[in-house]
């Protein structure tokens, strides 16, 4: 047993993975303390899922040292598998089985002591608000219910390290908040370590002790949410222009993060406070540009990438 | 060694769990098993009532005709039942591989192969059920087996072996297929092989080149062994040895192949 208080739940150095010429992960170093929540932030295609798949023994890295829950990922995959739980971005439930049968399937495969199996399943159904739907096939579940069942299945064996690969992608805002509550409780009550991947800065901010930003296979920043936000700034302002002339003039002269030519909309880096908004408006007035719409927004993934790399996430699939 | 024996007991326990999963699927969605029994029954009726009169005359001998043809064709139809069921297995394995639950199984400390053995064992039970239905219908339409209890037990044993082998082959084909549609098409030759053998007509009625193939492909000894046991139509000795040999080779080869394909890495399309 490795009850690792004060030790790393997950430690990796120089992890590399390439598919042919395409380098997916290019030297990843991470050290995640036991009992913390770590968020890996990045757009689609950044390599987040690949890293989760490597650390959860699904695929092999080309190089690198990796220890999860005290075990070497390459040399002791079964010991790692016994210590982890994985909830991927694609639903990992058996649609033909009921919620209860899905959980019992996990209990059987994990060989929990027989008398404990039903008890553990009942407990998880209650905790994840699935008692009413326990006898219905998972195929009939809503997105939020399915995600809760998925996570409940991951928890049957009381894993010490849990990988959550984009746990709220595709969920409505209410289900997302429910998921967040569940994840917070997991850390508070069960003392597990969570490795979370997400495209949402807000989600990482809400949940994680530490955040790392993954960009084209490299970690371009690491730190607490506060440290990261200090680098990123206060957010951005979007401006929609009445005419093409104004739009193009502004696009040349302002600090543009990203642009949408068809909608004649520019995203401008800004702290979002009154003074900087006034400055911006003054500049627009001086240039006699007509703005149809102005919105001040909290920072999101695009702002993070603009701040850290000087590029918005244009060449990759845009985060929502 | 304790580790080896605990590994084996783990593999058995996990396979039993996966078998329960498969049986639950069947009970909840019985369409596949009904198809697997229904299609061969239709073929049986078709061959007996539409073609049996004419084909039965070709068998020659004093008792030629539809009645003789029923007895002749039943072993072939039973093997078509095995092939149909195995095709169903290929579809359900391929479907399963598209489900996230299999990725979950791969991240768990369980016997990896158990997902597939669960499929194979579940399919074995379903196929035996289908064969029972088909044989029952055959008896109703005039099939008159001469087998005694020992013969019937041997028939059951041979059918378990054949089904086991053909099912593992279809599991491997399903793992090879990238889509469910391909997985459904790849086992098609297995449906046709009983026909290009001694399933529907004696091979000596075929042109020489085809006859050569028909005599040496595995389904012919399968069929001849069953025919010998059920109706005493042919001696079983050589064909039984051949049949068991074919089963062993196909089962072992397909098992290793399927295991290799299952253990290969499958990066997700998204990343």
From TrEMBL, chain A:
InterPro entries in alphabetical order: AAA+_ATPase, ABC_transporter-like_ATP-bd, ABC_transporter-like_CS, ABC_transporter_ATP-binding, DrrA, DrrA1/2-like_C, P-loop_NTPase
Gene Ontology cellular component list: plasma membrane
Membrane topology listed for this record: Peripheral membrane protein
Domain ABC transporter: 10-241
Gene3D superfamilies: P-loop containing nucleotide triphosphate hydrolases (3.40.50.300)
Main location: membrane
Matching NCBIfam families: drrA
Protein name: ABC-2 type transport system ATP-binding protein
Organism: Goodfellowiella coeruleoviolacea
TrEMBL record, chain B:
Domain ABC transmembrane type-2: 31-265
Top-level taxon of the source organism: Bacteria
Subcellular location: Cell membrane; Membrane
Molecular functions (GO terms): ABC-type transporter activity
Cellular component, GO annotation: ATP-binding cassette (ABC) transporter complex
A Gene Ontology biological process term: response to antibiotic
Location, primary (coarse class): membrane
Pfam families: ABC2_membrane (PF01061)
Membrane-spanning segments: 29-52, 72-95, 116-140, 152-174, 186-203, 239-258
Keyword vocabulary terms for this entry: Antibiotic resistance, Cell membrane, Membrane, Transmembrane, Transmembrane helix, Transport
Membrane protein topology class: Multi-pass membrane protein
Similarity-based family: Belongs to the ABC-2 integral membrane protein family.
Protein name (record): Transport permease protein
Taxonomic source organism: Goodfellowiella coeruleoviolacea
Organism ancestry: Bacteria, Bacillati, Actinomycetota, Actinomycetes, Pseudonocardiales
């Amino acid at each position: 047993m490795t009850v690792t208080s004060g030790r790393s739940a997950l430690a990796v150095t120089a992890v590399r993975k390439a598919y042919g010429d395409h380098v997916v992960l290019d030297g990843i170093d991470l050290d995640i303390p036991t009992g913390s929540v770590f968020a890996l932030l990045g757009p689609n295609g950044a390599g987040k899922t690949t890293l989760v798949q490597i650390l959860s023994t699904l695929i092999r890295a080309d190089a690198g040292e990796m220890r999860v829950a005290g075990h070497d990922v390459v040399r002791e995959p079964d010991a790692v598998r016994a210590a982890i739980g994985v909830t991927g971005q694609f639903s990992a439930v058996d649609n033909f089985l009921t919620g209860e049968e899905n959980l019992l399937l996990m209990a059987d495969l994990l060989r929990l002591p027989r008398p404990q199996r039903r008890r553990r399943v009942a407990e998880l159904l209650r905790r994840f608000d699935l008692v009413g739907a326990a006898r219905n096939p998972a195929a009939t579940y809503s997105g939020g219910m399915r995600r809760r069942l998925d996570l409940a299945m991951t928890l049957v064996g009381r894993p010490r390290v849990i990988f959550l690969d984009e746990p709220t992608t595709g969920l409505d805002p209410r289900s997302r908040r429910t998921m967040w509550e569940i994840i917070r409780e997991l850390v508070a009550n069960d003392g597990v370590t969570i490795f979370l991947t997400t495209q949402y800065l807000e989600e990482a901010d809400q949940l994680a002790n530490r955040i790392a930003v993954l960009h084209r296979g490299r970690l371009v920043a690491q730190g607490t949410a506060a440290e990261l936000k200090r680098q990123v700034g206060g957010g951005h302002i979007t401006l929609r222009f009445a005419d093409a002339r104004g739009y193009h003039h502004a696009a040349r002269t302002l600090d543009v993060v990203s642009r949408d030519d068809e909608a004649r909309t520019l995203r401008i880096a800004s702290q979002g406070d009154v003074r900087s908004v006034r400055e911006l408006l003054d500049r627009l007035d001086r240039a006699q540009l007509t703005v149809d719409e102005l919105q001040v927004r909290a920072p999101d993934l695009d702002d993070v990438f603009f701040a850290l790399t000087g590029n918005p996430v244009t060449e990759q699939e845009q985060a929502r | 060694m304790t580790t080896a024996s605990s590994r084996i007991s783990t593999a058995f326990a996990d396979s039993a769990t996966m078998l329960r999963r498969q049986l639950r699927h069947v009970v909840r969605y019985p369409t596949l098993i009904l198809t697997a029994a229904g299609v061969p029954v239709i073929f049986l009726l078709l061959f007996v009532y539409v073609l049996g009169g004419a084909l039965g005359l070709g068998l020659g001998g004093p008792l030629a005709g539809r009645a003789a043809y029923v007895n002749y064709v039943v072993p072939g139809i039973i093997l078509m039942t095995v092939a149909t069921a195995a095709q169903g297995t290929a579809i359900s394995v391929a479907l399963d591989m598209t489900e996230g639950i299999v990725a979950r199984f791969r991240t768990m400390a369980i016997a990896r192969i158990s997902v597939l053995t669960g499929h194979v064992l579940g399919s074995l039970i379903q196929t035996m059920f289908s064969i029972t239905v088909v044989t029952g219908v055959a008896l109703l339409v005039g099939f008159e087996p001469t087998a005694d209890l020992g013969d019937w037990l041997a028939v059951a044993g041979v059918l378990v072996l054949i089904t086991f082998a053909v099912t593992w082959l279809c599991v491997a084909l399903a793992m090879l297929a990238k889509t469910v549609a391909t997985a459904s098409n790849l086992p098609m030759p297995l449906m046709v092989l009983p026909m290009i053998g001694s399933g529907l007509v004696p091979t000596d009625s075929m042109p020489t080149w085809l006859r050569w193939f028909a005599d040496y492909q595995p389904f012919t000894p399968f069929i001849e062994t069953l025919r010998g046991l059920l109706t005493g139509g042919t001696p079983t000795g050589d064909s039984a040895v051949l049949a068991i040999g074919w089963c062993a080779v196909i089962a072992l080869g397909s098992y290793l192949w399927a295991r290799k394909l299952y253990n290969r890495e499958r990066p997700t399309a998204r990343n």
